[in-house]
TrEMBL record:
Residues 1-18 form the signal peptide. The lineage of its organism: Bacteria, Fusobacteriati, Fusobacteriota, Fusobacteriia, Fusobacteriales. InterPro entries: Bact_solute-bd_prot1 (IPR050490), Bind_CPR0540 (IPR022387), SBP (IPR006059). It comes from the Bacteria. The keyword Oxidoreductase does not apply. This is Family 1 extracellular solute-binding protein. Keywords: Cell membrane, Lipoprotein, Membrane, Palmitate, Signal. PANTHER family: ARABINOSE-BINDING PROTEIN-RELATED (PTHR43649), POLYGALACTURONAN_RHAMNOGALACTURONAN-BINDING PROTEIN YTCQ (PTHR43649:SF33).
């Protein structure tokens, strides 16, 4: 599972500042001493072998570093326990957008190390600077620069195309035409329903964080996405707001009836299997789903992927990327920054490519990816526009978690315990509250 409540404010505030604001420089890397670098990483869809290889490769480039790797599918739990005791890792690989919201809490508490100087570092083992290798769009955005200025606090890692995945073999068998507009999309829903096939499913509600911004863009363009991520409730109102929620209403009404019961960390693959088994047509996901589901995918089945349908002019697809960061209270910041810089090396890219993890660098060896994976990165070559971004950070608001309000509550709309109008009105209310608490 590629993508996944937030700590109490008091807990986070105490934890973040329990060690004080001044790092003991005597604990920084000493020239002739071997330095232990504590690296905590989320173990996601790329498996548990990629990071040990990266660690080994880095230690070969920097023999004075000894990396202590902790990786886990529940890394937030391990980190929470250590942070409460005042123990911080030096480097963390954990993306925003997860249900636990750990990375967001560090952003809200302004407890991240500034990484501007990482861009000016020469990549270990190479001669180019990090800034000369990382694709600009993945640096200059509201995720990596969360405070609305030019200061960088998170580095991009593992770039993934997302879109609507479908069973290409099923489409060929049934004579279905891949839709390009919302009207065609819902006309196809009627044809599929007549054959006992649902239009839509999703792995878990968190996967809709790539779908919803793209749907908003299909109605409003980039301006609407920017308003969405800045908690501007105007996008949920007026004539265009009506159109947006009309699309969502029809979509949720045509979502497979088994989706909600399996939309959790234990059973989400059952929803992904619906596409493989030809029981549902589309699922929002990233290219990693192909490898994740390979054991239950027949050799005769071919995957397809498309951008979201257009309303009038353009089609959009969200580009998801994960992040790596350094806590402000990290013990060995200099070595931590050196390690982060190494992640953008050609050597690291070769290792990442073995596990189909794509780094957003201009020297990435795309030719080493499986051909079926390479196809998914051609999405934008076919005219789709890319969306990159995330919600701006806000001060903690008691009882309000944005992921729950925007995405998790969609389960309630799909299973008909909440109406689309209730969902819409709640978003307007909660966005108006959060907009007043944006961290400037």
């Amino acid at each position: 599972m590629k993508k996944f409540k937030v700590f109490a404010t008091l807990l986070m505030s105490l934890a973040v500042f329990s060690c004080g604001s001044n790092t003991d420089t005597s604990k920084e890397a000493v020239k002739d001493e071997k330095v232990e670098l504590k690296f905590s990483a989320f173990e996601g869809g790329y498996g548990d072998k990629v990071w040990p290889e990266i660690v080994k490769a880095y230690e070969e480039v920097n023999p004075k570093a000894s990396v202590i790797l902790t990786q886990s599918k529940t890394i937030e739990d391990e980190l929470t326990s250590k942070i409460k005791g005042g123990q911080y890792p030096d480097v963390v690989m954990l993306a925003t957008g997860r249900k636990a919201g750990l990375t967001e809490n560090f952003i809200k508490e302004q407890a991240l190390e500034n990484l501007n100087d990482v861009l000016n570092r020469v990549v270990p083992g190479e001669q180019k600077k990090v800034s000369e290798k990382v694709e600009e769009g993945f640096i200059n955005n509201g995720v990596t620069k969360p405070y609305g200025n030019d200061d960088l606090y998170l580095m991009p890692i593992f770039y993934s195309t997302t879109g609507l995945f479908y069973n290409k073999t099923l489409f060929e068998k049934e004579g279905f035409t891949v839709p390009t507009t919302w009207d065609e999309f819902f006309m196809l829903a009627k044809k599929a329903k007549a054959k006992g096939i649902s239009l839509f499913t999703y792995a878990t509600p968190s996967y809709l964080d790539s779908f919803l911004p793209s749907a908003i863009a299909s109605v409003y363009g980039y301006e609407g996405v920017n308003k969405f991520y800045n908690f501007d409730s105007s996008i949920f109102k007026g004539e265009k707001g009506d159109k947006l929620f009309s699309i969502l209403k029809d979509l949720f009404a045509n979502t497979d009836k088994t989706t909600v019961s399996n939309a959790n960390a234990q059973n989400y693959r059952k929803n992904q299997q619906l596409i493989i088994d030809g029981k549902s047509l589309f699922i929002p996901n990233g290219f990693w789903v192909v490898d994740e589901m390979k054991d239950t995918t027949p050799d005769t089945m071919k995957w397809g992927m498309m951008a979201l349908p257009k309303l009038d002019k353009d089609r959009y697809a969200y580009s998801f990327f994960e992040q790596v960061w350094i806590p402000a209270n990290a013990e060995n910041k200099e070595v931590a920054k050196d390690f982060v810089a190494f992640l953008y090396s050609d050597k690291a890219a070769e290792i990442f490519a073995k596990y189909k993890a794509v780094q957003p660098i201009n020297s990435y060896p795309y030719d080493k990816l499986p051909k079926d994976t390479q196809l998914f990165f051609e999405l934008y070559k076919n005219g789709a526009k890319s969306i990159v971004g995330g919600f701006v950070p806000t001060e903690p608001v008691e009882g309000l978690t944005i992921q729950d309000e925007v995405y998790s509550s969609i389960d309630s709309v799909v299973n008909k315990t909440k109406s689309i109008d209730e969902y819409r009105n709640n978003l307007i209310k909660k966005f108006d509250i959060l907009r007043k608490h944006i961290i400037k």
